[in-house]
Write a structure and sequence with these properties.
about 350 residues, A middle domain of Talin 1, 13 helices, mainly alpha
Length: about 350
């Protein structure tokens, strides 16, 4: 088969793979497949979507620079996580909400960043941008610690704890917005000084593709979460473990894939920016936003468990040590993955409250 024949064959396979997403969504809405079947199919359907979001982010970064490109990827990529959290809060699943948010932060900074460093090419990162993101995660950890300590004893969902979370959520949002504005201004200045790269998709096309892929991802994620209970029962796993590990990984599946894909292509600065920006957005935006929105359904207390707070702290400190030189190393990636493996083991033995 010649070069153009191989390209055509890959294009046909990719088209079929991308059509799997809408097919799975239709099967779920029509009730035409069992939960375990839907779980497997939805997981497979997320793979080509990861590639598509990675392509869109890569082309978007040609116009915006890696900093803003990573921020936009995180914004679109965290939409499923926000949907999961709000739906779960409306259903009164407060423990699952808190666990999935913490799991997303730890998963991005240890699992995704670890894979990105281990399997990507070596390169230089934007050290200042990285430390701003990690600093925001550390600041959020300290703030939620204040709200969480009173919940170590007694009912963790009592109304007084939810009321305590309100000013903390507002403060965290103010800090997040302030930091984001300054960071974006810096990235625009850097992009103005950088050389414009030729080729790639037009900016409007990249935005439309990224937005469309995110919508399909959000619907697939809803299907995955809806079938997780059947999976958990079959695998004999606690709800806490499912939420903090599996839901968190599923909710950020496309970001995981796109970051590793970009790292393999040598787009190291952009690849590293994706999990860092995503974790900062979850810690500084999603956690307080969900806490505020929850008052329309059932007030959510930020009474995280000690093991969850420890996970957030480790996820903020360890990458800072690994990235302190401003260059990526495979050994650093292996350290992050080893730390995530240990955390998963701790989560498994922690069980439900």
């Amino acid at each position: 088969m010649d070069k153009w024949g191989r390209i055509a064959a890959r294009g046909a396979l990719l088209t079929l793979a991308l059509l799997l997403g809408p097919l799975v969504i239709a099967l779920d809405r029509l009730g035409a497949a069992g939960d375990l079947t839907l779980f497997v199919l939805a997981g497979v359907a997320l793979i080509p979507l990861s590639w598509l979001i990675g392509e869109a982010t890569d082309n978007l970064a040609l116009h915006t620079g890696p900093g803003i490109g990573g921020f936009l990827n995180a914004t679109f990529g965290n939409a499923p996580e926000l949907i999961i959290a709000i739906v779960a809060v409306a259903d009164g699943l407060t423990e699952i909400v808190r666990a999935s948010l913490v799991g997303s932060v730890a998963g991005n900074l240890l699992l995704v960043l670890g894979f990105t460093l281990l399997f990507g090419r070596k390169g230089v990162i934007d050290r200042q941008s990285a430390y701003v993101s990690l600093g925001l995660v550390a600041f959020a950890t300290v703030l939620v610690l204040v709200a969480a300590v009173p919940g170590f004893h007694g009912d963790p969902d009592r109304r007084s704890l939810a009321e305590l979370a309100l000013p903390i959520a507002v403060l965290l949002l103010i800090v997040r917005v302030t930091v984001t504005r300054r960071a974006l201004r810096r990235q625009r200045r850097l992009q103005a000084l950088a050389e414009v790269e030729d080729g790639g998709w037009p900016l409007s096309v990249a935005l439309v593709v990224l937005g469309s892929a995110t919508v399909v991802t959000a619907l697939l994620t809803e299907t995955l979460v809806g079938t997780l209970r059947a999976f958990a029962d079959t695998a004999h796993l606690s709800e806490f473990f499912v939420a903090v590990v599996i839901v968190a990984i599923v909710g950020n599946a496309t970001e995981h894939g796109s970051a590793v894909l970009l790292a393999r292509r040598g787009r190291v600065k952009l690849a590293v920016e994706i999990p860092l920006a995503s974790s900062a957005q979850i810690a500084g935006l999603l956690i307080p936003l969900v806490a505020l929105v929850s008052w329309f359904f059932e007030p959510l207390a930020l009474s995280f468990r000690p093991v969850e707070l420890a996970a957030m702290g480790i996820a903020a400190v360890l990458p800072a040590l690994v990235l302190r030189t401003g260059r990526t190393t495979r050994f650093g990636g292996a350290i992050l993955l080893a730390a995530y493996t240990v955390l998963v083991s701790v989560f498994y033995f922690s069980g439900d409250r």
